[in-house]
Request: fold
Amino acid sequence: MALARTRIKVCGLTRVEDVHTACALGVDAIGLVFYPPSPRAVTIEQAQALLASMPPFVTVTALFVNPHADEVRTVLKALPAVSLLQFHGEESADFCRQFGRAYIKAIAMKEGVDLAGSAIQWSDAQALLVDTYKPGVAGGTGETFNWHLLPNDCAKPIILAGGLTADNVGNAIDMVHPYAVDVSGGVESAKGIKDAQKMAQFIQQVNNTGC
Reply:
Protein backbone atom coordinates (compact mmCIF):
# COMPACT_ATOMS: atom_id res chain seq x y z
CA MET A 1 0.00 0.00 0.00
CA ALA A 2 1.39 3.44 -0.90
CA LEU A 3 2.37 5.77 1.88
CA ALA A 4 0.05 8.70 2.49
CA ARG A 5 3.02 11.09 2.37
CA THR A 6 6.78 11.33 2.57
CA ARG A 7 8.08 12.30 5.99
CA ILE A 8 10.56 15.16 6.39
CA LYS A 9 13.57 15.60 8.66
CA VAL A 10 15.62 18.78 8.77
CA CYS A 11 19.06 18.10 10.19
CA GLY A 12 21.95 20.20 11.46
CA LEU A 13 19.91 22.84 13.26
CA THR A 14 21.91 25.30 15.36
CA ARG A 15 19.58 28.26 15.98
CA VAL A 16 16.40 28.53 18.04
CA GLU A 17 14.64 30.48 15.30
CA ASP A 18 15.38 27.76 12.78
CA VAL A 19 13.94 25.09 15.06
CA HIS A 20 10.80 27.18 15.48
CA THR A 21 10.47 27.73 11.73
CA ALA A 22 11.00 24.08 10.85
CA CYS A 23 8.39 22.97 13.36
CA ALA A 24 5.93 25.66 12.24
CA LEU A 25 6.34 24.46 8.65
CA GLY A 26 5.33 20.97 9.68
CA VAL A 27 8.50 18.86 9.68
CA ASP A 28 8.25 15.43 11.25
CA ALA A 29 11.72 15.45 12.80
CA ILE A 30 14.68 17.69 13.50
CA GLY A 31 18.27 16.55 13.79
CA LEU A 32 20.95 17.81 16.17
CA VAL A 33 24.56 16.98 15.35
CA PHE A 34 26.83 15.80 18.17
CA TYR A 35 29.96 15.39 16.07
CA PRO A 36 32.45 18.16 16.89
CA PRO A 37 34.24 18.23 13.49
CA SER A 38 30.96 19.14 11.79
CA PRO A 39 30.26 22.85 11.17
CA ARG A 40 26.71 22.07 12.29
CA ALA A 41 27.70 20.53 15.63
CA VAL A 42 26.07 21.69 18.84
CA THR A 43 27.03 21.29 22.47
CA ILE A 44 24.65 19.87 25.05
CA GLU A 45 24.09 23.38 26.37
CA GLN A 46 23.22 24.68 22.91
CA ALA A 47 20.91 21.72 22.33
CA GLN A 48 19.10 22.37 25.61
CA ALA A 49 18.38 25.93 24.46
CA LEU A 50 17.19 24.70 21.07
CA LEU A 51 14.79 22.21 22.61
CA ALA A 52 13.50 24.39 25.45
CA SER A 53 10.39 25.43 23.52
CA MET A 54 9.93 22.47 21.21
CA PRO A 55 6.30 21.71 20.37
CA PRO A 56 4.91 18.19 20.79
CA PHE A 57 4.78 15.54 18.07
CA VAL A 58 8.11 16.46 16.44
CA THR A 59 10.81 13.80 16.77
CA VAL A 60 14.16 14.97 18.10
CA THR A 61 17.06 13.04 16.56
CA ALA A 62 20.60 13.06 17.94
CA LEU A 63 23.27 12.35 15.32
CA PHE A 64 26.60 10.76 16.19
CA VAL A 65 29.63 9.61 14.20
CA ASN A 66 31.64 6.79 15.79
CA PRO A 67 31.04 8.06 19.34
CA HIS A 68 32.11 6.54 22.63
CA ALA A 69 29.13 4.97 24.37
CA ASP A 70 29.48 7.39 27.27
CA GLU A 71 29.06 10.33 24.89
CA VAL A 72 25.70 8.99 23.77
CA ARG A 73 24.58 8.29 27.32
CA THR A 74 25.56 11.80 28.41
CA VAL A 75 23.45 13.34 25.64
CA LEU A 76 20.48 11.12 26.45
CA LYS A 77 20.67 11.97 30.15
CA ALA A 78 20.90 15.70 29.51
CA LEU A 79 18.31 15.80 26.71
CA PRO A 80 15.27 13.68 27.57
CA ALA A 81 13.47 15.06 24.49
CA VAL A 82 15.77 12.98 22.24
CA SER A 83 13.73 10.01 21.12
CA LEU A 84 15.76 8.79 18.14
CA LEU A 85 19.47 8.16 17.64
CA GLN A 86 21.17 8.44 14.26
CA PHE A 87 24.51 6.71 13.78
CA HIS A 88 26.43 8.05 10.83
CA GLY A 89 29.75 6.25 11.15
CA GLU A 90 30.95 2.66 11.27
CA GLU A 91 28.98 1.68 14.37
CA SER A 92 28.06 -1.98 14.74
CA ALA A 93 24.51 -3.13 15.34
CA ASP A 94 25.46 -4.16 18.88
CA PHE A 95 26.75 -0.67 19.56
CA CYS A 96 23.66 1.01 18.15
CA ARG A 97 21.18 -1.06 20.13
CA GLN A 98 22.84 -0.89 23.54
CA PHE A 99 21.16 2.38 24.52
CA GLY A 100 17.62 1.05 24.60
CA ARG A 101 16.51 3.81 22.27
CA ALA A 102 15.13 3.71 18.74
CA TYR A 103 17.83 4.35 16.14
CA ILE A 104 18.47 4.75 12.44
CA LYS A 105 21.69 3.73 10.69
CA ALA A 106 23.24 5.76 7.90
CA ILE A 107 24.65 3.91 4.90
CA ALA A 108 27.07 5.65 2.53
CA MET A 109 25.94 4.67 -0.95
CA LYS A 110 28.34 3.71 -3.73
CA GLU A 111 28.70 0.92 -6.26
CA GLY A 112 28.70 -2.46 -4.55
CA VAL A 113 26.89 -1.48 -1.35
CA ASP A 114 24.53 -4.29 -0.31
CA LEU A 115 21.56 -2.45 1.16
CA ALA A 116 19.65 -5.71 1.66
CA GLY A 117 22.57 -7.00 3.70
CA SER A 118 22.61 -3.79 5.73
CA ALA A 119 18.93 -4.26 6.53
CA ILE A 120 19.81 -7.67 7.94
CA GLN A 121 22.88 -6.45 9.80
CA TRP A 122 20.99 -3.60 11.51
CA SER A 123 17.78 -5.58 11.74
CA ASP A 124 16.40 -3.65 14.71
CA ALA A 125 17.02 -0.21 13.22
CA GLN A 126 13.92 1.90 12.67
CA ALA A 127 15.16 2.73 9.18
CA LEU A 128 18.24 2.98 6.99
CA LEU A 129 19.33 6.47 5.98
CA VAL A 130 21.06 6.41 2.60
CA ASP A 131 23.55 9.20 1.99
CA THR A 132 26.27 10.12 -0.47
CA TYR A 133 29.59 8.35 -0.11
CA LYS A 134 32.60 10.65 -0.02
CA PRO A 135 35.93 9.45 1.38
CA GLY A 136 36.72 11.01 4.75
CA VAL A 137 33.38 12.81 5.01
CA ALA A 138 30.60 11.60 7.32
CA GLY A 139 27.60 13.04 5.49
CA GLY A 140 26.72 16.66 4.87
CA THR A 141 28.43 16.59 1.46
CA GLY A 142 25.74 18.56 -0.33
CA GLU A 143 26.07 16.08 -3.19
CA THR A 144 23.57 13.57 -4.54
CA PHE A 145 24.39 9.97 -5.36
CA ASN A 146 23.12 7.66 -8.08
CA TRP A 147 19.59 6.89 -6.91
CA HIS A 148 19.48 3.93 -9.28
CA LEU A 149 21.77 2.14 -6.81
CA LEU A 150 18.80 1.73 -4.47
CA PRO A 151 16.77 -1.48 -4.74
CA ASN A 152 13.08 -1.37 -5.58
CA ASP A 153 12.27 -2.86 -2.21
CA CYS A 154 14.07 -3.09 1.09
CA ALA A 155 13.28 -4.79 4.37
CA LYS A 156 13.71 -1.46 6.16
CA PRO A 157 12.15 1.94 5.55
CA ILE A 158 14.47 4.15 3.51
CA ILE A 159 15.32 7.73 4.48
CA LEU A 160 16.86 9.51 1.49
CA ALA A 161 19.61 12.07 2.13
CA GLY A 162 22.46 13.62 0.20
CA GLY A 163 22.29 16.83 -1.78
CA LEU A 164 18.53 17.24 -1.66
CA THR A 165 17.04 20.65 -2.47
CA ALA A 166 13.66 22.01 -3.44
CA ASP A 167 14.77 21.66 -7.07
CA ASN A 168 15.44 17.91 -7.00
CA VAL A 169 13.49 16.44 -4.10
CA GLY A 170 10.35 15.91 -6.20
CA ASN A 171 12.25 13.83 -8.75
CA ALA A 172 13.99 11.97 -5.92
CA ILE A 173 10.69 10.99 -4.34
CA ASP A 174 9.22 9.94 -7.68
CA MET A 175 12.22 7.71 -8.36
CA VAL A 176 13.02 6.29 -4.91
CA HIS A 177 9.66 6.40 -3.09
CA PRO A 178 11.41 6.81 0.26
CA TYR A 179 9.70 6.67 3.62
CA ALA A 180 11.30 10.03 4.43
CA VAL A 181 13.74 12.62 3.15
CA ASP A 182 16.49 14.23 5.19
CA VAL A 183 17.81 17.69 4.30
CA SER A 184 20.50 19.90 5.76
CA GLY A 185 22.68 21.92 3.40
CA GLY A 186 19.93 22.15 0.81
CA VAL A 187 17.94 24.53 3.02
CA GLU A 188 20.83 26.65 4.29
CA SER A 189 22.21 30.12 3.60
CA ALA A 190 25.44 29.04 5.33
CA LYS A 191 26.51 25.87 7.10
CA GLY A 192 24.33 25.49 10.18
CA ILE A 193 22.21 28.53 9.26
CA LYS A 194 18.86 27.49 7.84
CA ASP A 195 16.99 29.70 5.39
CA ALA A 196 13.28 29.98 6.16
CA GLN A 197 12.29 30.42 2.51
CA LYS A 198 14.37 27.44 1.38
CA MET A 199 12.84 25.29 4.12
CA ALA A 200 9.35 26.35 3.10
CA GLN A 201 10.02 25.64 -0.59
CA PHE A 202 11.56 22.26 0.18
CA ILE A 203 8.68 21.18 2.39
CA GLN A 204 6.13 22.38 -0.17
CA GLN A 205 7.81 20.35 -2.89
CA VAL A 206 7.80 17.22 -0.74
CA ASN A 207 4.17 17.65 0.19
CA ASN A 208 3.20 18.29 -3.43
CA THR A 209 4.90 15.13 -4.66
CA GLY A 210 2.97 11.88 -4.50
CA CYS A 211 4.48 8.68 -3.15
